[in-house]
């Protein structure tokens, strides 16, 4: 916050707990004392580090076999979406 000023807020090394609604309040001086408030949601995202991992039980399968595979991603916030593709088709 040390690099913030009347118009801009600067936050360093943000963590997930800073996710939330932020408000800006502007007040007029006397005699009106009118106040305007605007708020907006800021979400601190934490993307997964590195590529997803894919585990397949075998490399070769016979016709009629059941394929078992696992795709996983490291921790992220919000949780990453994992989508399967076979030969480029979802």
From TrEMBL:
Ordered alphabetically, the record's keywords are: Disulfide bond
Disulfide bond as a keyword of this entry, yes or no, is: yes
Q: Which domain of life is it from?
A: Eukaryota
Q: Which InterPro entries match?
A: CD80_C2-set, Ig-like_dom, Ig-like_fold
Domain (Ig-like) ranges: 52-90
Pfam family membership, one: C2-set_2
Q: Does the keyword Disulfide bond apply?
A: yes
This protein is called Ig-like domain-containing protein
């Amino acid at each position: 916050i040390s690099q913030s000023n009347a118009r801009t807020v600067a936050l360093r090394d943000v963590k997930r707990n800073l996710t939330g609604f932020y408000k800006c309040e502007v007040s007029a001086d006397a005699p009106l004392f009118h106040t305007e408030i605007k708020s907006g949601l800021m979400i601190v995202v934490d993307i997964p580090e590195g590529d997803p991992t894919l585990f397949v039980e075998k490399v070769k399968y016979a016709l009629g076999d059941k394929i078992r595979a696992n795709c996983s991603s490291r921790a992220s916030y919000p949780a990453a979406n994992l989508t399967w593709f076979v030969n480029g088709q979802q």
